[in-house]
Write a structure and sequence with these properties.
Largest sheet: 6 strands, parallel
Strand order of the largest sheet: 2-1-3-4-6-5
Helix content: 25-40%
Number of strands: 18
Structural class: alpha/beta
Radius of gyration: 24 Å
Organism: Pontibacillus yanchengensis
Protein name: Thiamine pyrophosphate-binding protein
Strand content: 15-25%
Number of helices: 21
Length: 543
Amino acid sequence: MKATRAVLDYLKKGGVEYIFGIPAGSVNAMFDELYEIPEITPIITKHEGAASYMACSYAKYSNSLSVCIGSSGPGGTNLVSGAANAMREHLPVLFFTGAVPVPTMGLNASQELDAKPVYDSITKYSVTVQKAEDLLGEVVKAVEIALSGVPGPVHVALPIDVQLEKVTEQLIPDFPQKEDTIPTEDTIKHTAQQLIEKETGYLFVGQGIRGASEQVIELAELLDWPIITTPQAKGYIPDDHPLFAGIFGFAGHENASQLMNDGEGKTLFVIGSSLGETATNNYNTNLAKDRYVIQMDFDESVFNRKYEVDIPLKSDIQPGLRMLNAQLESMGLSRTTYEPSRSFATPTEEYNTQNVLHALQQILPVSNRYTIDIGEFMAYVVHHMDVFEPNTFDINVHFGAMGSAIGGAIGSHLAEPERPVTCITGDGCFFMHGMEMLTAKEYNMNVLFVVLNNARLGMVYHGHTLQYKRSHERLEQDPVDIAAMAKAAGVQSTRIEDLHELTPELVNDLRNQDGPAVLEVSLVDSNIPPMGDRVKFLSSFGK
């Protein structure tokens, strides 16, 4: 068999269902083998960058390895942003890139690039395979690394000749199974004792609680402590839970800020957050000031980075919290059950971003997942949109790649086809990866793309104006009718220019298409988004 067939048989055995990417001469050997493997569907995208974001989202919501492929040279470099994103979000994505034949390396072959060093700093493992008999073993090694310990992306470069060379029949090994990382019983007992003795505190939770919302809420109800989330963790704790105290960090809430800066809680229990810039409101020292700090994370490198930690708990979040909750109950704590109490916002008559988002959310089902792109609208989403059910928002504040939510919506749909998904994006992001609406169309994916079109890079415009007190005229652009673009591409679309046009009938008609739909919201919002602390941080330099 060809060396590449052994690799695909291994991926099939591991349950891989999709490979995201674009065919090209340097990787066509792999695509050719897929004719014989109907269990794996190639998702052919319009840009490798979008493919990488689809793969990231699929890994996140399928809770499994995802696979992405690009050609040698530019195809491989187009995947780099997605690999960096996967590294930041701890997502197990196997990136394949083509490579020129081994004998031509260093001879200025067409699309030649030594991709291994390019990927070294943004993956857990990067290798160029130079012998066909080593290919399967290297892929197996890479997958094991991707799924073990702290999950993350890996990269394997595939020279054309290595892919096509015949190898002897090889035993296809089983896929590795990730084993939970948990603390020792003594550590759990010590942590529980400290929590009881300190009496008051706050649960400060990040995106690492994905899949463990129930355990976080149980812990909060055992301790009767407020829950504060980072922007990246929006969507994991319902807004109507009485112990939810809001979001701290970028575009966060005043109540959460007051608790972090002036609250009397004696303990800060950080769960699943690396305490980065956007999560800590620019590394605010008040978070840990005069507080006993406990931090739970599966990545021990996050301990004591910026804030001194009294108890570092290396653990996967869900099993670690289960152990801790059981220990607290055995020590006499009982859980208080709370009834939902928050009333959700009602839009006013003003045609602005905040009201559009609230009106949209009143129409869409509570189980809808929102993939949120990068732009001024993201600040409004973080600050104003309501969370009805856990795991319903995907906000990539960390790496912050424009256009990533477009591919993210497609990856989410493939991972959970029964869950409705809506991408909230802007015109700037759409011009980067909006043609992936065609990918959704070609694969008959029911994804709603909501494009907030203000004919400018809104976050740049507002941020630049706030920071420098002026804005270059070229930060604003000529308006483009995006709905007309979508219609020309054969995608159902509608453009609105007034809040009253955003009706349940309109939205549900778009949602009930056999494929994707585009809702363009033509709106120039002159209000300043809730992003002032980010501007203050940037303005602190150069003085």
